[in-house]
Design a protein that fits this description.
The protein is mainly α. The protein has 4 helices and no strands. The longest helix has 20 residues. The radius of gyration is 18 Å and the shape is extended.
């Protein structure tokens, strides 16, 4: 078993709150490495999408609908 697989197995055996905390720590560590150009591009994109939603150009859907559709599509890929 590789070190990555071993760490993954150990992490998955943690209680849910601990896994969530670990995920947050890992995500924050990635965000620290973001370069300024990438951050600026994401902020521009976020603002663009926000404006589309506020203006009515784009309509949002409830997360449970989107996730259900994604799960259905992923099952078809197996």
């Amino acid at each position: 078993m590789s070190e990555f697989e071993e760490l993954t197995t150990k992490a998955m055996s943690l209680p849910s709150p601990s896994r969530a905390e670990l995920a947050e720590i890992l995500i924050q560590s990635l965000e620290e490495d973001d370069d300024p150009e990438t951050k600026a591009a994401w902020i521009t994109e976020i603002r663009r999408r926000d404006e589309q939603i506020r203006s009515g150009e784009k309509v949002t859907r409830p997360a449970h609908e989107v996730l259900k559709e994604a799960r259905t599509q992923l099952r078809c890929m197996k």
